[in-house]
Specification:
Elements lengths: L1 E3 L5 H18 L8 H13 L4 E6 L2 E11 L2 E9 L8 H15 L5 E3 L6 H9 L22 E4 L2 E4 L1
Parallel strand pairs: 4-5
Antiparallel strand pairs: 1-2, 2-3, 3-4, 6-7
Helix pairs in contact: 1-2
Length: 161
């Protein structure tokens, strides 16, 4: 069942946010441990800024969550995660329907997504839902001490990643 976040969900959602951060760090070849304190601060920031948060509830707890950011009439899928043991069961799709519903309520046509270029799981998920238009590329200078090991081509442009 997909429903809005309740305060009683905090512990489970914090753990899932921390797990997502570990996964995203691995995409950059960074080893990271669960940081529940930072994840709790992230959740508090979402709630303080009135970001809609949805959870997927199953018989033994929560299977996943989705955070949306609404910027005027634009909906961003800010953060989505499904616990590994519940993946490939339609839970992410059910959560994502909530972001698409918000988009329709605001008169929009699409949910916007930031995705790491090597996050093939998310890219595959989004492509199956019809999200296949590359919209923006985030460019920045390397962080101090950052080791970039991958190249990404966009048309004739090559970028470090």
């Amino acid at each position: 069942m997909i429903r809005p976040y309740h305060i009683a969900d905090k512990e489970d959602v914090v753990t899932m946010i921390a797990s997502l951060r570990v996964f995203l760090a691995k995409l950059k070849s960074i080893d990271r441990t669960l940081d529940l304190e930072s994840a709790a601060a992230e959740l508090e920031s979402y709630l303080r800024n009135n970001f809609p948060v949805f959870v997927a509830e199953v018989s033994d707890g929560l299977a996943g969550y989705l955070v949306c950011k609404i910027d005027e009439d634009v909906v961003w899928a800010e953060s989505i995660f499904v616990r590994p043991e519940y993946r490939r069961q339609g839970i992410a799709s059910s959560l994502y329907v909530e972001a698409e519903r918000l988009t329709q309520e605001l008169g929009g046509d699409t949910v916007y997504n930031w995705v790491h270029p090597n996050n093939n799981v998310s890219i595959s998920f989004l492509k199956k839902r019809g999200y296949n238009v590359l919209n923006l590329i985030e460019l920045r200078r390397p962080w101090k001490g950052e080791e970039l090991s991958t190249k990404v081509r966009v048309e004739e442009n090559m970028f470090d990643y």
